[in-house]
Amino acid sequence: MQDIQFSFERVWSIDVPGKHLLEGPVLSPDGTRVYFTDCFQGTIYEFDPSQPTVAPTEIYSYAPYCCNGLQFLPNGKLAACLWKGTIWPKGMLHELDLQHKPKPKTEPRISHSTTGKQFRHPNDLAVDDEGGVYFTDLRGGHVYYYACGDTQAKSCLELDKPNGIELQMVSGKAQSLYVADSGTSTVLHYEIVSPGVIGKQIANQHFKIKHAVDGLALSSDGLLFVAEKGAVYALDAQLDPIGRAPLMKDDPPIPSNICFIDEKRFVVTSYRSFLCPNKAELFLGTIED
Questions:
Q1: What pLDDT, in 10s, does the model give residues 181-196?
Q2: 6-287: what CATH class?
Q3: What gap in Å lies between CA 140 and CA 91, rounded to an integer?
Q4: Residue 111 and residue 94: Cα distance in Å, rounded?
């Protein structure tokens, strides 16, 4: 299986009272910064990957909401997946204007489906070439899509617990969609017929560990990197594993999501098990030649 090698360096950790889960890394449009969240605290951080020894800066808090996936929109604003509640959570997507002074300004974007159903746990999102947004509702069991200007989102796919999501772009167009279903520990690949319309399944890969798969990221050469409970995996075009590496050799944390910085380097967010909820760590990964 080990056709590709990659390694990790821990660049930052948080270890303070409270429940912590680092999530949602996204590269800024100019490629100079990575933004990520401390999900359960509702905070967004800014990190400069060119200065990995400099601690990330907290730039915004959505508390008491939890803040999960992030993605930049064509208008330059940062879309954020928010949710609140344990037994019956309610969620929405917000847009954060990082350029607004003296501090970033947020506004709600969308909270209901075309059937009037409120989102439960918006988890991760991907933006297509037309500015439309695909996003997963983890505890709602749907993948949704909304176009620019829409006030409601339509369901385009039903899964058990849809989690990570990624678009494959070909010649600037969204050609296919990858989704991680944590409920079945499966990564799935679908055709996109038109914006918001999902076609046939192309491939899938099942992982043996229960509730294993989380965030997804495509490398520049088309490999799909998967955050899995025990390690980060690299999958080829057929979704066959061709690489695997834990974040650390001893007592490794659990990878949650992935974001590529360039052709060789990527950021991985992580968390610890329920036995150590007050600690979470940020890693830089490197694909080795």
A1: 999 999 999 999 999 9
A2: mainly beta
A3: 10
A4: 9
